[in-house]
Amino acid sequence: MTDSTTSSQPDDTKDEGTDTGTPTAPTTPDTPTTPTDPTTSATPAQTATIADVQQYMQNNPGNVRKHATMVLAIADYSTPAPEKFFGADGLPCQLPEGYKQMGYVTTKGVVEKRSVKTDDTTMLQDLEPVRSDLSSSTRQLDVTFGEANAYTEALRAGLPVAAWPESKDSKTWAYTEHGLSQLPLYRIYLIAQDGVGADAVYRVEFAYKATITGFGDRTLDRADTEDLGFTFDVLTDERTGKQYDKASSVKTAA
Prior knowledge:
By secondary structure, the protein is mostly beta strands. The chain contains two helices and eight strands; from the N terminus they run αββββαββββ. Strands 1, 2, 3, 4, 5, 6, 7 and 8 form an eight-stranded antiparallel β-sheet that branches. β5 (185-194) and β6 form a beta hairpin. The chain is extended, with a radius of gyration of 43 Å.
């Protein structure tokens, strides 16, 4: 008897392309693009040089200041500070009420001293500090008056300006000095002029709060004038937050 059942075989050719007998050419990888060479400058930039140092200098002798013409005045700390130092014409304002001119200043002039103190922080691995912090800042004014007048003698006696005589030129005065626990607070007003006429330059400096922290030696002899020296510590005025003003001006009106 003939077997009519057809034997089933697995179809291993499913989803495969028809083999035409022609081999497939392999895909050629893209040729990498050669980067464009950067443009090379033909000549390096030329550094500017100085042919003549004397002509290159920017020195100006007109900025060299000397302050021989000077008014130094002192007032009590309770006296109002000026609202402005120069008028519309560029000239210094006159002293406000309550400020007393002290007279001659010796050739030592008025010396401003600024100093700061820092605290360094160091580490084991470094000899140099790794940081430095400002711990204090001070400003002092040194001035020696060449007049032993009623005002300078009262200042040396530690009196407030309100207790000074009416005129510095009074030849009659008497001060009894007592032990002091604290010296008065003052304001210091300085007006200076460098040059004359149309070439004059005016300087104003103002200490809002100051107190005496040192006295110079006083000499009475045949050869020397009786000079009276003072060191003032300049403090911050807690009312305004100001400590020291400096301003410069020239005459602007004809």
